[in-house]
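Narrative progress, year one. The postdoctoral researcher (J.K.) led the effort to move from monomer predictions toward full complexes, under supervision of the PI. The following entry was the first complex the group processed end to end, covering 810 residues in total.
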Amino acid sequence: MSLTVYRKAHFNAAHRLYKEEWSNEKNALIFGKCSNPNYHGHNYDLEVGVTGEIDEETGFLIDLKILKKVIYEEVEVPFDHKNLNLEVEAFKTVNPTVENIAIEIYNRIVKRLDSRFDISVKLYETPRNFVVYTG
Amino acid sequence: MSLTVYRKAHFNAAHRLYKEEWSNEKNALIFGKCSNPNYHGHNYDLEVGVTGEIDEETGFLIDLKILKKVIYEEVEVPFDHKNLNLEVEAFKTVNPTVENIAIEIYNRIVKRLDSRFDISVKLYETPRNFVVYTG
Amino acid sequence: MSLTVYRKAHFNAAHRLYKEEWSNEKNALIFGKCSNPNYHGHNYDLEVGVTGEIDEETGFLIDLKILKKVIYEEVEVPFDHKNLNLEVEAFKTVNPTVENIAIEIYNRIVKRLDSRFDISVKLYETPRNFVVYTG
Amino acid sequence: MSLTVYRKAHFNAAHRLYKEEWSNEKNALIFGKCSNPNYHGHNYDLEVGVTGEIDEETGFLIDLKILKKVIYEEVEVPFDHKNLNLEVEAFKTVNPTVENIAIEIYNRIVKRLDSRFDISVKLYETPRNFVVYTG
Amino acid sequence: MSLTVYRKAHFNAAHRLYKEEWSNEKNALIFGKCSNPNYHGHNYDLEVGVTGEIDEETGFLIDLKILKKVIYEEVEVPFDHKNLNLEVEAFKTVNPTVENIAIEIYNRIVKRLDSRFDISVKLYETPRNFVVYTG
Amino acid sequence: MSLTVYRKAHFNAAHRLYKEEWSNEKNALIFGKCSNPNYHGHNYDLEVGVTGEIDEETGFLIDLKILKKVIYEEVEVPFDHKNLNLEVEAFKTVNPTVENIAIEIYNRIVKRLDSRFDISVKLYETPRNFVVYTG
């Protein structure tokens, strides 16, 4: 038996793909136009899934008001209208690929929710490129 | 090896979140504006998944005409343009949260299809809130 | 020359199509299952368009924060999670067809914005049925 | 731990459902209007998922430029603007149901990517009918 | 004052772009892969708009059941799961470009509705290519 | 009589709203978080409409291959994966609001197409905020 509740959110941010240890030439070779030193940006679309058991009392798996608040505080406030490389601590040392952003979002949300839940994160960088991370 | 065929459908219904055993104050506290005694409503979007083996003869996992008919009879006829609390038997005693509606849909469909199939139900209450139930 | 800025919003509501002057039979004949006395509901999607001239100083036609606030106060607060027939004054006497809801929204928004703007309202009752009203 | 990267693509093609061993009557009975001898067609939407481990060096699970190139060469070039029954070798003997097309796409892609990856194929024949195949 | 009601529908069809008066080489030069002699196909998405005045009695501009029936009889029955070049009379002599298909749909619908209405047809050949025709 | 052909495209870019003549405080007051000095970004979705008469010879209003090429050269190459403020000449002096970006795109496209056509530009900054400019 498996029941999962999903909540969508979104944020708009600038980023560049870049490794400090590499030369500019190597960054351009591996990351192409995503490595533009002046940054580019995306409308990131996020779906957070919470898997667990239904509370027979309320008929909720989780109160969506709580999930919405956690996503707001852990993702929207720190990421929306930000430059991910310069303004999010984790991405000062970790390359902000869509894979790494999804892992960072997972880690932020999992520590705020009860450990009886399994969490999944689906993150769209564009409508054609996206990832799913399940911890 | 896993192959799943999906069929979408939709229905428009009114509901309210409400527990008879609770006071109006407690209903309002826990369910907020979803507990409006005059009801509100949604365009519910449904995706039913059927997992099984391909029939080498036809190249179908399941004839979609059959799946479409089952969804029509078990979900669209009883739920579309209805008040879920007042007009669907199950929700006279069970709170029609999106979780419970998905479970009810699952139970209705699974009893109509061959037991060699595994069934999943994805139900959108709004484009931003949805659940997946797999029995 | 024409420049229009659009802002989307949404609300979830219950309604029924019904004319008090008509018998139940005539209501059922004309409005079909939309006339269910127990109500049904929709996720209404709204696009408000504002046509005018660009402010050379800011590069804005209208500050979207203002438009968003007007839509919130005039549409989302009074309509979201409500029963339109019972809880919105206008629809106690006017049948809440998608046409009449769009006209009501138009009238509410136009009186809050500067008369130099032309307003349009696009309202989806379902993804397949919608109207555009331009005053 | 599970991380999956997805890439979308699409192709437009003609097909008919048809078994040579069957009479025209039996084809019409089983496949209905999908068996029209003059063909009909679809805009097929494809999502290819690649599951594996992140490369700590780049922050990529797979370089999407490579995945995009594989999908282009293995699916878009041979399938786009083609008659699947007449112009794709596999479907001269296999009925081009959406199930069989997804399996064919899976087999083409899996042989081009490193065996450390798990592959999934989601194929939409229409926005309401789709399949997922995971090998 | 302008009020327009829209109804969506869709059909799946095969076609090729082709002018009989031209050589195969010229057809291939002008129409490219759309001229494949074996046909290709699309999921066509259609939005029919009807502009007029609201009926104060019902609150409807037009009864959508009527519009839905006209679209079904004039477009879905003759076009869905068909080869447009071979099975729709108009396209035996007129090239079935998305422009010409939209004009044909307009002409079929306009003759079925009251002349007090203005009709518009929006037709998507793919999610990225579409036309609007207003007579 | 009116016939319009539309072609969609998209680009991902960074920008900030900012007027050099204003203090940082005034920029922050008027443009809010859109004025972040480190930039933020968007997936811009673009629909270009071309209104004109059908070419009876081809059945095309305009060859979409030509329109696609113009959009690619005038919008995608100069804007995609760029910082609009720093790397697009026009936005060194003009504030890159969605209104001004749409006007710039219009001006670039109109000078490349035959003057017998009327052009419209619809530009989405997010799925909820967009503009239409018709010259």
